[in-house]
Model the fold of this input.
Amino acid sequence: MNVELAEKPQILVVDDSKVIRRAAIKMLGDDYHVHEAVDGMDGWQQLQRNDAISVVFTDLQMPEMSGLELLANIRNSDDERLSALPVIIITGVNDTEDVKHRVYDAGATDFITKPFQSIDLLSRARSYDHLNRKVVELEKATGHDKLTGLFSLASFEELGEKALSFALRHRLQFSTVNIEIENFHDIYLAYGKSVAQQIIATVGKRIQDEMRNEDVAARLGVAKYAALLPLTSDASARVVISGLCESVNKLMFTARHEEIHISLAAGYSALGFKRQHDFMEMMQQADTALQKALKSTTGDKIVSFIEQEKVEHKPVITDEELHIAIQHILDGVYSQIPDYMSRAVADKLTPFLDYVANQPDTGMTGTENP
Done:
C-alpha cells in the first residue's frame, strides 16, 4: 500500500476545469491526498472504487454528469458510507440563490464559491473530514434506541462530548437541541400503548429523514428527542429546527376513526453566549429552553437558550449611570464606560441620533437674527 495514501486523509475534487483541480491540489496537498475527477461520472466511479474518500468537493456544471446528478447518486446510494459523505458544492459567481437552495435541498453539506481562498478550502476539508471519520467510528461503537433506530441517550452524550470538544478546539460553531411531542401523555391515555409507540417511531424516522448528514439524532425519553448540529450557529440552528418541526407537524395519524395531529416544541443551545466546556451543561441549557417552549402561550414553540438569556440578563441602566456615561462620551473617554453598559447606552442614544439624522440640513453654521 502506498504509504502516503495510508497516512493522509483522502479527498475527491470533481471539476471539469484543470485549473480548479490544480489549485485545490496545491492548497490541500500538504495535508491530504487529493483525487481528481474531470466530471460527475468520473467522480461517481472513483467513489464506488475507493471507500477511503472522506470528503467530496464538486462543481455544478460539468459534462457527462453534473454536480447535482452526482450529489443525487451519493445521497440515494444503498451504501451507507457513500450516502453519508460530506459533499461541498463549488459554486460560481453567476449561480443564483435559487440554484443554491435547490442544491441544498438535494442534500449538499456546504458551499464554497469560486474563486476561493486557501484557508476557506482547507478549513472545510479539515472540519468535514474529521467529523465524517468520527461519526463513522462512533456509529460502529455505540448503541441505538430499538423503537426509533435513533441513537440512545448514552450514545448521544458520548457523541456530544466529542463533537463539543472538537468545536471548541477548532473554534467552530456547534448547537444541540431538545425536542418533545406536546401533550403526549394525553395521547397515550386516550389511544393506548400501541398507537403511542407508532407515533414515537414515526416521529423518530421523520426527524432522522430531516436531519442533515452531519447531524446526529437521538431519543432521550418517551416522547423526547435530541439532535447534535455541528458547524451550526444559533441563527442557523433555528432555521434547521423550524424546518424539522414544520415537517413533523404535518404528520397525521388515525386511530378509532379519529385523526390525531401532533406538534413539537423545541429548545436549543449554541456556542456563543459563553464558551461552554461541558456538553452536559449544554444539554441542560437546551432542556431549560425546551421547558419554556412547552409553556409558551405565544405560539412560538422554538426557544433559544442564548436569546432567552440575553433578554433576561439585559442590564437596566439608571438615569444617574446614563448621565455619567454621556459625560464620558462628551469628554472622549469611552474606555471609562463599562462593557456591560455600552450596548444599553447606545440603545438609549439611538432615537436621538435618528432624530438628528432626519432633521433638514439648512446649511447654517450659527444663529442669525430674523
User: Anything to note?
Assistant: The two ends are 94 Å apart (CA to CA). The first strand starts at residue 10 and ends at 14. Confidence is low (pLDDT under 50) at residues 1-6, 364-370. The longest helix spans residues 118-141.
